[in-house]
Design goal:
Strand content: under 5%
Distance between the termini: 91 Å
Radius of gyration: 30 Å
Largest sheet: 2 strands, antiparallel
Strand order of the largest sheet: 1-2
Shape: extended
Order of helices and strands: HHHEE
Helix content: 55-70%
Number of strands: 2
Length: 149
């Protein structure tokens, strides 16, 4: 079972390497299409070089080498690795949360309260939000008996 997973991972890595080689070639042709020296050309050339290097490493070493490289880099830079892992965890957590929220709110009434689109359980009419204020008896009875009566 573990061997099958490694084989599948290496097959996918090979496909990714082919895609990266194609991308590298496309970036090189984009960079070579212009005679001007500029930021776009420099970025295209550097991107092509980086994609080619990564694809070559992936082809030569497979997934095992990538994992070994990641472990080695994490040992050399533990703080950066932990910050990157934290950032990746936050991003994945937000994506999963947003995907689960979209599926669970279909057919339900809109949420009210903190973080919702409506303010204090109010209603939205034509794009404007109105707050539902508490009813207080006599709050608008100013001067119904007159001033000084």
């Amino acid at each position: 079972m573990q061997q099958d997973a490694k084989e599948r991972a290496n097959e996918e890595a090979s496909k990714l390497a082919q895609t990266l080689h194609q991308t590298s070639n496309q970036l090189r042709s984009m960079a070579g299409a212009t005679d001007q020296q500029g930021l776009a050309r420099t970025l295209a050339e550097e991107g092509a070089s980086a994609a080619e290097q990564f694809a070559t490493r992936l082809e030569n070493g497979g997934v095992d080498r990538l994992v070994a490289d990641a472990r080695s880099w994490a040992r050399r830079n533990p703080g950066t690795f932990l910050l990157g892992a934290l950032a990746a965890g936050v991003v994945v957590g937000r994506l999963v949360r947003n995907m689960s929220d979209e599926g669970s709110t279909e057919g339900q009434a809109p949420a009210t309260g903190y973080g919702s689109q409506t303010l204090y359980g109010g209603r939205t009419d034509g794009g404007s939000t109105y707050a539902a204020l508490p009813e207080t008896p006599g709050a608008t009875d100013w001067g119904s008996e007159g001033v000084g009566s």
